[in-house]
Every structure is written in structure tokens, then in C-alpha cells.
């Protein structure tokens, strides 16, 4: 699955695309403690 988003990532979008937080973390290979942390890290890359 490839996700292209022209805008910034949002927690709402991620919660609708991934069944759980662990799946989202593993997909992006980013260490984060919560949904917002993951979104913040991806938006700041």
C-alpha cells in the first residue's frame, strides 16, 4: 500500500487508513509513542 498525500498528514486520516497504531508505525518505519507523534514526525520530514 502506498499513500500519497499532497497536504499534511493528519491523525484522522491515519486512523481511517490503518487498523491500528502499530501497523502505521511499522508501515512508515518511524518510532513514535502515539498517533500525533507519528503524524508530527512525518510532517516534519
Task: Give an account of the 3D structure.
It is a single chain. This protein is mainly alpha-helical and 45 residues long. It has one domain (11-43). It has helices at 11-17, 21-28, 35-43. The longest helix is centred in the C-terminal third of the chain and has 9 residues, at 35-43. The mean pLDDT is 89.
The domain tally reads 1
Low-pLDDT stretches: none
Order of helices and strands: HHH
Q: Structural class of the helices, strands and pairings?
A: mainly alpha
SS elements, strand count: 0
Give the proportion of residues in helices: 40-55%
Euclidean distance between termini CA atoms: 20 Å
Biggest beta sheet summary: none
Gyration radius (Cα, Å) is: 9 Å
Average of pLDDT: 89
The percentage of residues in β strands lies in under 5%
Structural shape = globular
- Helix segment count? 3
Question: Which helices and strands appear, and what pairs or packs with what?
Answer:
Blueprint: H1 11-17, H2 21-28, H3 35-43
Amino acid at each position: 500500500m502506498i499513500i500519497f498525500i499532497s497536504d499534511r498528514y493528519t491523525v484522522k486520516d491515519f486512523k481511517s487508513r490503518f487498523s491500528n497504531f502499530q501497523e502505521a508505525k511499522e508501515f512508515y518505519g518511524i518510532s513514535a509513542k502515539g498517533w500525533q507523534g507519528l503524524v508530527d514526525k512525518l510532517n516534519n520530514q
